[in-house]
Protein: MD-2-related lipid-recognition domain-containing protein
Amino acid sequence: MASKQSLRLVLAAVAVAACLLLLPAASAATSVEYCNKGKKYPVKVSGVEIVPDPVQPGQPATFKISASTDKTIKTGKLQIDVKYFFFSVHSETRDICGETTCPATGNFVLSHGQTLPSFTPPGSYTITMKMLGDNNEELSCISFGFSIGWVASS
Structure:
């Protein structure tokens, strides 16, 4: 009887260790891809920082997009689409000037805060974000992944 319980404890420890190895490191850089790799977008994205990483359901998360442009952006919008595997699970449109200081020119940071519902399933997600300027001119379009972890116990 004791050996079965010991075996269960060992198997549980191995399962927990395997799950921890699958989680991305907090300091890992988020890989960003342009939607159209051959297009010369007016806004260049140099990086994305996600805090915390992985995102925790029911807790605030911040997505900071570092970018630069030679244009002066006075108005515009962000179209955000979130996918869980291949399924679209969330879409929204935001005012660019609500996410950064306008007019934006040179180097700037778009900072988007979001609290996901506590029932959000853990796993890998993908965000596609289009930056649109005056007359819906596409300033940039990027895609990047992020992870949602398990709900932490209180």
